[in-house]
Structures are given as C-alpha cells and as structure tokens.
Design brief:
Elements: E1 3-8, H1 13-24, E2 28-33, H2 36-49, E3 55-59, H3 68-74, E4 79-85, H4 100-125, E5 132-136, H5 149-171, E6 177-182, E7 186-187, H6 190-195, H7 202-205, E8 210-211, H8 212-224, E9 229-232, E10 239-242
Helix pairs in contact: 1-8, 4-5
Length: 257
C-alpha cells in the first residue's frame, strides 16, 4: 500500500523544510498551503532531488473552516501515515491594539483548523498501526511571551489539546500516536508576518535562533521517538524530547464518572 505524509503550511519556513526532510526518507507527500506557486516550486525541487516519490499539492485556505471536511474527504483515497498540522499564524501586538480581523484569522488557523483536521484524522486512523499526528505549537505554548497574549494562548491550546489527545490515545490502546513540537525563534517569514513588517532581522532581534532546516530535523527526531513533546528551551535553545508537560488528572477522584 502506498503511504503519504501530509504537511499543512508547506509553502515556506518549517513546513517547506519538513517536506524536504521527509522526501529524503522516501516518503510520498501531500502538501497543503494557500500559495500554490510556492507549492509548485517545492514540488519541482523535491521531484528533481528525489524523483522516485510522489508529491501532490493542494492549494487551500485553512481559515475557511467550513471547507475542511471537504478537503479531508478529497484525500480519502490516500493512506496518510502521518499528518502534520504545521500551518499557523503569529501575532505580536498588545491586546488593546489588536486587529479583530487578524485575531480571528489567528484563531481560525491556530485553533479551529488544527482541531478540525486533528479530529478528522484521529477518527479515521485511530486503529491504524504506524500512524502519527504531529501538531506544531511553540515554546510560547508553554511560556507566556510579552506582546503575544493571543498568539501564546492559541499555542497553549495546541499544546494542551495535543498532550491530552496523546494520553487519551495511549489509554485506549490506539495504534495512533499524537505528538507536539514546540519551536522557539526560527528564521522564517514568521517574524515579518507576526509583526506586520516588510523586513525582519533575526540577528538583531534574537541572541539565538534556529533555521528551518534545524527545526525540520528536530521534528524528525520527535517523529522517530515515542515521546509526546519535542520542545526548545527559550534560554539555551537546546532541544528536548519528553513526556507530557501539563498535569494530567487521569486518576483524580473528582473526575466525572
């Protein structure tokens, strides 16, 4: 059976590098993003480098929540061994200055789209051996960061949702694994878009950061492991694979019966 890895937000940054990383492992790919021209560029690059794999692209705006079930159903003919929810939106702004339009886009993409696609994938692949769901959070999904209250809150959601899902799957003896990757500063388009600027100098803004290729390798390390979380330390920029970081009340007497 031919198997595929799906990567959302694959048109740039970490998603672009992750696609290259899985291609080197001879994985067939389904790449999803809004910018079809970038996806075509990536598809051509991969096919030139690894001609023996299949690369499919789908141009889609994942903030259109009502379209996500149709998008998922369009992939029904493919066996998806790994689904990576990488698409996300950053936003640096004091809450009093936030644009409601951009705030809603952030919530649509970071929270709603990720949740809908996770649920759809888990429902279909719950009992399929060798399957994984990897959701991209942030170090800001474990630490509150100044001027990023809404962004961090959305990533706290991603982290807690995915950790809880991972433990739920284990307790139900599911064959599917759920994992969360939490990058810190990574040199991508994120800086420009999150700050709404045309240019963004990572060397001036940060004492340390990772490249997209480095983060792609960390994701592959998480993929290869049995751990729940892969997280970057915001001070040392070291990468750690660990079990769940949020408290889990699975044996609490106060739980619903």
């Amino acid at each position: 059976m031919k198997k595929y890895v799906v990567i959302t937000g694959a048109s740039s940054g970490i998603g672009y590098a992750v696609a290259k990383g899985f291609a080197k492992r001879q994985k067939n790919l389904i790449l999803i993003a809004r910018r079809e021209d970038n996806l075509l560029k990536l598809k051509n690059e991969i096919e030139n480098e690894v001609p023996e794999i299949e690369v499919l692209i789908k141009a889609a705006d994942l903030t259109k929540i009502d379209s996500l079930e149709n998008l998922f159903s369009e992939l029904d003919q493919y066996f998806i061994e790994t689904w990576i929810n990488n698409a996300g939106l950053g936003y640096y702004s004091e809450v009093k200055d936030q644009s409601l339009t951009k705030t809603l886009q952030l919530l649509n993409l970071n929270v709603e789209a990720l949740t809908v696609l996770s649920v759809l994938y888990v429902r279909k692949y719950h009992d399929q051996p060798g399957t994984q769901l990897i959701n991209i959070s942030s170090a800001g999904g474990y630490t509150m960061v100044p001027n990023a209250a809404t962004y961090c809150a959305s990533k706290f959601y991603v982290s807690s949702f995915t950790e809880a899902l991972s433990l739920e799957l284990r307790e139900s003896s599911s064959s599917l694994q759920a994992k969360v990757l939490a990058p810190a500063a990574t040199k991508t388009e994120f800086g420009q878009k999150a700050n709404d600027v045309s240019e963004y100098d990572y060397d001036k803004k940060f004492n340390n950061y990772h490249t997209s290729d480095e983060m792609a390798q960390f994701l592959l390390d998480l993929y290869d492991s049995d751990k729940v979380v892969g997280i970057i330390d915001r001070k040392t920029f070291s990468f750690t694979l660990t079990e769940n970081l949020f408290a889990y009340a699975n044996q609490a007497s106060s739980n619903q019966k």
